[in-house]
Write a structure and sequence with these properties.
CATH superfamily of the largest domain: Translation initiation factor eif-2b, domain 2
Main location: cytoplasm
Family: Belongs to the eIF-2B alpha/beta/delta subunits family.
Order of helices and strands: HHHHHHEHEEEHEHEEEHEEEEHEEEH
Structural class: alpha/beta
Number of helices: 12
Low-confidence stretches: 151-158, 163-168, 284-293
Helix content: 40-55%
Keywords: Cytoplasm, Initiation factor, Protein biosynthesis
GO molecular function, one term: translation initiation factor activity
CATH architecture of the largest domain: 3-Layer(aba) Sandwich
Strand content: 15-25%
Distance between the termini: 28 Å
Pfam family, one: IF-2B
Radius of gyration: 23 Å
C-alpha cells in the first residue's frame, strides 16, 4: 500500500495543471487513482476501496488546497462503489473499472466545450462581462464567442467600439480583476487581449466602481458544493455580493466533476481554512512612521522604538490570507455545466441523484 501511494502522488503531481495543459485538478486525481488501480494487488472489492480511500487521504494531506482534488477522488470512489457488473471474477471487474475510469477522463476533456456552447448564448452584442482570476472554462467560452462571431473591437476610454465587416459581428468587452495575491487575472487579460478581445484589468478593490458598466459576471470554479454554492479563487464572494446589490446576473461555469458533496455554512468550514489564515501577528510596542511617501510596490517599512526596521512584503500578506472563498447559492443566478444549465437548487438535486446510485 505504501508503494502504491508513493506512485500515486508522483503520478498526480505529473498530471497537475500547468502552462499549456488542459487537465484540471479533479481529473488529475481521477487518472492517478485509475493508474493506482492498475498497480494494486487488491484481491477483493473491499481491499480495493480501502486502498483508494487511503490514497485519496494521502493526496489530500499533501495539498494546501484539496477541495478540487477531493471532488475528483470522491466522484471516482463513488463510481467504483456503485458500478454495476456481472464479471465472472474480481480480476475481470478491476480491468473493466480501469477501462471505464480512463474512458471517463477522456470524455471529460470535452466538458469545457459543452459548457462554452451553453454560456455562448448569453453573450449578446455590446455585452460588458466581468470575470475573476484565471479559469480555463471561462477563457474557452470567451474565445469560442470570439472565434464564432469574429469579434472585433477596442476600448476607447470606458466605452467599447466595434467594427463591422461584410457580415454582422458580435462585440463584447471584458473586465478582469487582477486577483491578488497570485495576480492570475493578468494572465487572463493577456490571453484575451492577444486573441483580439477588448479587455481591461480592474483592481480587486475597484469592482464596486466598475459594476455599473457590467452586464453580467462570468465566474469559473474550483468546486460547486451540495448547497449549490461556489468555491473559487478568493474575491469571488465579494464580487457576487456586489453583483447582487447591483442587480447583475452572476453565472458560474463548472464541469460536473467539480460538483462536491460538501456543505459549508461559512468561509471557515472550507477544508483549506486553517488557524493561520487572517491571524494577528504578535503585538509589540511600536512607533510607526512611513519609510517613504507613496505606496511601495513590494514592501513597506516601519521603525520600532528601538530603531529596528520591520518590512511587510506581498508574500507575507499572501501567506496570511486565504486562497479560495465560498459564495452562497442565493448570490448565484445559474451554473453552466456539461450536464446543463442549472439553478443552485438544481445542482443540489443533481448531486443527490448522482450519489444515490
Amino acid at each position: 500500500m505504501r508503494m502504491c501511494v508513493s506512485v500515486l502522488i508522483h503520478i498526480y503531481d505529473e498530471s497537475l495543471p500547468s502552462e499549456g495543459q488542459k487537465l484540471s485538478t479533479p481529473l488529475a486525481a481521477i487518472l492517478a487513482l485509475t493508474e493506482m488501480m492498475e498497480q494494486s494487488n487488491a484481491g477483493t472489492m473491499f481491499e480495493l476501496l480501502t486502498e483508494l480511500k487511503g490514497a485519496a487521504e494521502a493526496l489530500s494531506r499533501q495539498s494546501l488546497n484539496p477541495i478540487g482534488l477531493k471532488a475528483g477522488c470522491e466522484l471516482f470512489i463513488e463510481f467504483i462503489t456503485l458500478f454495476p457488473h456481472d464479471a465472472a471474477s474480481f480480476s475481470e471487474l478491476k480491468t473493466e473499472l480501469i477501462r471505464q475510469g480512463q474512458h471517463y477522463a477522456e470524455q471529460a476533456l470535452a466538458y469545457r466545450a459543452k459548457i462554452a456552447e451553453l454560456a455562448f448564448d448569453f453573450i449578446k452584442d455590446d455585452s460588458v462581462i466581468l470575470t475573476h482570476s484565471y479559469s480555463r472554462v471561462v477563457l474557452q467560452t470567451l474565445l469560442l464567442a470570439h472565434k464564432r462571431k469574429r469579434i472585433s473591437g477596442e476600448i476607447s476610454g470606458s466605452n467599447a467600439t466595434c467594427e463591422y465587416f461584410s457580415s454582422h459581428v458580435l462585440c463584447f468587452s471584458v473586465f478582469v480583476t487582477e486577483a491578488r495575491p497570485r495576480g492570475m487575472g493578468i494572465k487572463t487579460a493577456e490571453m484575451l487581449t492577444a486573441a483580439g478581445i477588448p479587455c481591461t484589468v480592474v483592481l480587486d478593490s475597484a469592482v464596486a466602481y466598475a459594476i455599473d458598466k457590467v452586464d453580467f459576471v462570468l465566474m469559473g470554479s474550483e468546486a460547486v458544493v451540495e448547497s449549490g454554492g461556489l468555491v473559487n479563487a478568493v474575491g469571488s464572494n465579494q464580487i457576487a455580493i456586489i453583483a447582487k446589490a447591483a442587480n447583475k446576473p452572476f453565472y458560474a461555469l463548472a464541469e460536473s466533476y467539480k460538483f462536491h458533496r460538501m456543505f459549508p455554512l461559512s468561509q471557515y468550514d472550507l477544508p483549506s481554512h486553517n488557524p493561520g489564515v487572517l491571524s494577528f501577528p504578535q503585538t509589540m510596542s511600536a512607533r510607526a512612521r512611513p519609510a517613504s511617501s507613496g505606496l511601495p510596490s513590494k514592501a513597506s517599512s516601519v521603525l520600532f522604538d528601538n530603531g529596528s526596521p520591520i518590512r511587510m512584503t506581498q508574500e507575507d500578506i499572501a501567506r496570511n490570507n486565504p486562497d479560495v472563498d465560498y459564495t452562497r447559492p442565493d448570490l448565484i443566478s445559474l451554473v453552466f455545466s456539461d450536464v446543463g444549465s442549472l439553478t443552485p437548487e438544481g445542482v443540489s438535486q443533481y448531486l443527490v441523484g448522482m450519489f444515490a446510485g
